[in-house]
């Protein structure tokens, strides 16, 4: 288990739609802040050298003479301080902090070859397979991480840590049902594992099962969890219940545990957005970027607010940072593609690049995420490839529930493509069909 029960959640904790006048946006592709449990990605080899994982299955942190036992294996620790042969490690999101001997850990930059060596000596080394999966997960090699975790679970179907880690990967593939199944099995095997309850609570939150979510969080707290994400989720639930005062208290509690927590900042910004105060929301998100320049979601959320203010170039700059930090971010790819396909400013639109980005977002979501498909359709419409625009828009509609609030807007976009019109404003005569639309030449 890594700090990533923060965990590659592709879904929103709460969809906060910004009711803005930004042209080129529509309810089928809502402008929204994304407060999610996210990986704390590192951006450079130098930064990765400041993170480490445990070398052996037995592992303990120490605070003075007091032992601190993590609730499982697989956490990725930040190295806060080096004192001779001792290291001060922390995992802020889980409230873990303590000292270890340097020999107890391996730097993240060296971890994959280290565990690969152990696997070469003993291909049935379940711990090494699990840890290599964790490391590959952390460095965005998601497919190979799945291979390692599946192999670990074939050798030991009762590996709680491998089940929880694989649950996180199911989340990436938009398979919350499988994610819940894996983590529920982990809880059956280890009913006192607080980490497992936190993770299942997060999955249930994204499935909008708020009562079950709150129950699992209470169980985690009773078992001693200090996870910041509990307060983030509870804050978002209070926002959904229109209680911003309680929500603010929860977000502030999360930041006391982890001052760099991007989701807590996003939650605070959401309060201002609901009050129609985007300038104050932007200030909060500026603080988030300063607090942790390695968090892709802070840049992504700031891009949303900038886009709502029609600051397209600045929004694209922030999305560039999202993709620099998390190249496999389906959200970052999708949002950047959407701007390039639908921006009212013709100087910014670029249909060719929009198609490339949207196609990659669709690949990452197994071509089953409607917003990625509508983005791909819009990108093709910018290229005047209306056959493909119609094709992918129809596939998105087929995936949406019949009563989805987005379905009508999606159908309107489909009608535009059938009329050979792009998904952004065109001239009045073109809108009336006097002449065909010609995309911007690049």
Tell me about this structure.
The chain has 442 residues and is of the alpha+beta class. Among the domains are: 45-126, SH3 type barrels; 329-442, Alpha Horseshoe (Serine Threonine Protein Phosphatase 5, Tetratricopeptide repeat), CATH 1.25.40. It is built from 20 helices and nine strands. It has helices at residues 45-48, 108-121, 126-138, 142-155, 160-172, 176-189, 194-206, 210-222, 228-240, 244-257, 262-274, 278-291, 296-308, 312-325, 330-342, 351-364, 370-382, 386-399, 407-418, 428-431; strands spanning 16-17, 32-33, 51-54, 61-63, 66-68, 77-83, 86-91, 96-101, 105-107. The strands form three sheets. It has a five-stranded antiparallel β-sheet with strand order 8-7-6-3-9. The N and C termini lie far apart (46 Å). The model is unreliable at 1-32, 34-48 and 427-442 (pLDDT under 50).
Overview features:
single chain, 442 residues, alpha+beta, SH3 type barrels, Serine Threonine Protein Phosphatase 5, Tetratricopeptide repeat, five-stranded antiparallel β-sheet, two-stranded antiparallel ribbon, disordered C terminus
Shape label = globular
Q: How would you classify the quaternary structure?
A: single chain
Mean pLDDT: 84
How much of the sequence is in beta strands? 5-15%
CATH architecture verdict of the domain at 329-442: Alpha Horseshoe
Helix content: 55-70%
Please name the fourth-level CATH homologous superfamily of the domain at 329-442.
Tetratricopeptide repeat domain
- Give the CATH topology of the domain at 329-442: Serine Threonine Protein Phosphatase 5, Tetratricopeptide repeat
Largest sheet: 5 strands, antiparallel
Unreliable runs, pLDDT <50, ≥5 residues?
1-32, 34-48, 427-442
Sketch the topology as an H/E string, one letter per element.
EEHEEEEEEEHHHHHHHHHHHHHHHHHHH
